[in-house]
Design brief:
The protein is of the alpha+beta class. It is 26% helix and 26% strand. A 6-stranded antiparallel β-sheet has the order 4-3-2-1-5-6, with helices on one face.
């Protein structure tokens, strides 16, 4: 009799756990953190645009890093990412919160996080690769990629909106990026 009672309690416990995980609004175990909750932390969101695979002397890329108090625009030459230009713009926590909230709505948290799919090198060889990251204390919290060669990559959010949000953080982005001949 005691054995059946313990079994019944275990079944009821499992049902409760399943209901908590299934019912919308319930806190799901391992659910991604809402992006705007990083606004008061040292988390950094970053977009990297990598140009086509070409000669070392012609290879170019750029990145936009958005943090709580600043936005950093960098241009790189070659495959070793030699920095050719860095421009820093001031920001603040309110702006960062708004940016993170917009990224959240754009689906920045969505994608395939399978480690086997994380290496984007070689994909879209004649086009551009886009790498979307959120890091905190040196740890990747989000790391997805996509391309301008169709449906390639692990990023599951709205690519166009995400790109526009990052680019809007850099005053005169189009003018700055126009100096890079292999980045559109």
């Amino acid at each position: 009799m005691l054995r059946y009672f313990v079994w019944l309690l275990a079944v009821i416990g499992l049902i409760i756990i399943l209901l908590i995980l299934i019912i919308p609004g319930g806190k799901k175990l391992g659910a991604p953190r809402v992006l705007d909750s990083y606004a008061t932390t040292n988390a950094v969101t970053k977009l990297t645009i990598v140009g086509p695979i070409n000669a070392e002397v012609n290879h170019q890329s750029l990145s936009i890093s958005v943090e709580q108090n600043q936005v950093i625009y960098q241009e790189y030459a070659g495959y070793n990412n030699n920095v050719i230009q860095t421009i820093t713009f001031p920001s603040n926590q309110t702006a960062y919160y708004s940016f993170l909230r917009a990224l959240d709505i754009a689906g920045f948290n969505k994608g395939n996080s399978n480690p086997a799919a994380q290496n984007s090198v070689g994909y879209c060889a004649l086009g551009q690769r886009y790498i979307f990251q959120l890091t905190q204390n040196g740890n990747n919290k989000i790391n997805y990629w996509s391309t301008n060669c169709g449906n390639l990559g692990t990023y599951g959010g709205n690519q166009g909106l995400t790109m526009a949000l990052f680019q809007a953080q850099v005053p005169d982005y189009n003018k700055l990026a126009a100096t890079l001949t292999n980045i559109q």
